[in-house]
Amino acid sequence: MKKIDYHIHSTNSFDGKSTILEMCKASIDNKIDEICFTEHFSIDKDIPTYGFLDFNKYSREIDDARNIFHGRLKIHKGLEICEPYFNKEILKETIKDQNLDFILGSVHNMKKTKLRNYIEGKTNKEVYEGYFKEIYQMVLLSDIDAIAHLDLLKRYAYDSLGNYSFIEHEELIYDILKLAIKRDIAIEINTSGLRCNSLECFPSVSVIKAYKSLGGELITIGSDAHNTKYLSYEYFNQIKLLKSLGFKYIYVYEKRKQKSISLE
Fold it and tell me: Which of 32, 48, 85, 116 is deepest in the core (most CB within 10 A)?
């Protein structure tokens, strides 16, 4: 089957380490068929992503890469928007002419506080409950195609507070998943979680199983690579997992329209 990576960052993101051309060359070397750059973006002046992405430069580099690698690699242009429910009308106006293929929505900040700082002085239950409530608001209010790394908070909370109990937050997680299904928003399997201390994808298998039990089908897969080293990280293991859970497809996007890719 096709090898796909739908969450990667280049030096167009404030924390990216490899250029678009470097990421594309490495994708071909790794026999990846299709990628989507999802550069960090926000219109909130108080968080690190603000003001870094130069859309003109980003578009030129995407166009150049498409010309250079035509016929060898399918390249899509996307964004990972931090807190995309913030100043929605300004956001809509800002990105309306960017010809985006795919938009990930993420929560990296809680009321303008970085997640690593948000957890300080709180209990396990408090931090995860607050975070999942914020994810619910994002899914409710945002114009996005997929939820990026749904339980990302465990990256920051795991060492000091541990992982969350799925059962303890089950009702809220189910509410998020039901709303995502209703709004036709995909769930991303983000393999970067396997590279942190929790040693599990974002989100956990329990969340993916719950999504499937509700009839959810829209799954995207991304490595969240910020350099060439982690492109398509653990991809085929996640395909194997999805097949074992009864999923038949993963999804890719072009001009924000879904297309299914068979897992066979």
Answer: 32
